[in-house]
Amino acid sequence: MTGSLDRSDRPLAMSRTVLRLLVKLNVVFALGIFVLLMATLAAPTFLMEALGLGPARDGGRLLLAMRGIMVVGILAAPVIHVVYTRLLAIVETVNAGDPFVVENAERLQTIAWSIVTLQLMHVAVVILADGVRVGNDQIDIGDKFAITPWLTILLLFVLARVFDHGARMRDELAGTV
Questions:
Q1: Alpha-carbon distance 37 to 61, whole Å?
Q2: Which residues contact 162 (CB under 8 A, 6 or more apart)?
């Protein structure tokens, strides 16, 4: 490899940098959510007032739902870590010039299962948020259902099979030469 990056290598280098940063930010966000969860336990009234909600008029259901959503967020952090680190490992094999290996097929499948897990966690957050009203307002968490993540999951499972099949064919070919 030459001293300067080839134009085709720049996106790869940027991907590695972004993924390394995301791994670190994921930890920071998880710690932030944990601190916020602890704040809801230590000083719930202060926190609700700081959020501009005043004393809970819903019998504490809002605070309970918020805590549930925070727990889901904390539990999602290790799953997200798996996605980022497996993707980074795939990028590293591309950088090394040998991406079509069985390990990458396994990594893609792990990423797919992780995203299934994250989507199920999203369903849990939607259920928690849907059960709470603040005055006349429903908590708005954005999209309740999106087809794109589920299509991405299907694509990842298919790509995992393609990588696995391609890597095995390459290994067989190498063994016959």
A1: 15
A2: 105
Q: Tokens 């995301």 map to which residue?
A: 22
Start-end of H helices in 43-146: 44-50, 61-96, 102-130
User: What's the rounded Cα separation, in Å, for the pair 91 and 106?
Assistant: 14
Report d(CA 90, CA 6) in Å as an integer. Answer: 19
Residues 29-41: pLDDT tens digits?
999 999 999 998 9
Asked if 63 contacts 48 with a C-beta cutoff of 8 angstroms, the reply is: yes
DSSP letters, 30-60, are: HHHHHHHHHHHHH-HHHHHHHTT--S-SSTT
Q: Which of 123, 66, 93, 120 is nearest to 12 (CA)?
A: 93
What is the reported pTM? Answer: 0.83
